[in-house]
Design goal:
mainly beta; five-stranded antiparallel beta sheet
Length: about 140
């Protein structure tokens, strides 16, 4: 099982949909059944760059509107130097499965967004790392 650190300067956070090892194919969804995706990539750079993510129950394609995003972090990995971390606003759900935040994404290139979310009826936290491109 991999855990994610949210400390400043943490490099290369990978992974992260935790496997449900309890087995049993009941009706309960497992964390790996959920998928986050960036809405309308690429992200346009700016002091208040808008980043939207959609949370989907992958087997059914159903958007999950009532999740609570408990952690989010936007950063640009900078090789051996500490990652460049963007200031962000709180994540706001739109009620339809899209969650939006604004970030100070002022540099073009490859960024990552780390998310942790709680989904109703799902005991384990859903975690994901999304890569996205920022452009002018
Ligand atoms: Cu940078």
């Amino acid at each position: 099982m991999t855990s994610v650190t949210w400390r400043k300067g943490a490099l290369a956070v990978s992974v992260v949909l935790l496997a449900n090892l309890s087995g049993g194919a009941g009706v309960m969804a497992a964390p790996q059944d959920y998928r986050f995706e960036i809405v309308d990539p690429p992200v346009r750079i700016g002091k208040d760059a808008a980043i939207g993510v959609r949370l989907v129950h992958a087997p059914s394609g159903r958007p999950i509107a009532d999740a609570v995003i408990i952690q989010s972090r936007v950063e640009m990995p900078m090789g051996s130097a500490p990652a460049m971390v963007a200031k962000t606003t709180a994540v706001q759900p739109d009620g339809k499965g899209v969650y939006r935040l604004m970030g100070e994404v002022t540099m073009e290139g490859d960024w990552s967004l780390n998310l942790a979310a709680k989904v109703q009826g799902e005991a384990e936290t859903i975690r994901a790392t999304l890569r996205f491109k920022a452009v002018k």
